[in-house]
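Still learning. Show one?

>
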Amino acid sequence: MQSVKIVYWEEDGGWLGYLCDYPDYRTQGDTLDDLREHLKDLYLDISSGQLQGIRKVDDLVIS
């Protein structure tokens, strides 16, 4: 099992959210559980390479 950090919030009666590593790609759901399912699908699409031109947040180590 893999864990992925997400950000989510309720707005206008629905739920919005995104994967922390990919903040440009938001999704929505009618319920929090629905949103979580959409985020899982989004993660699978991104990690499979089906989407082109993906921008990712990452850490830069400066020494």
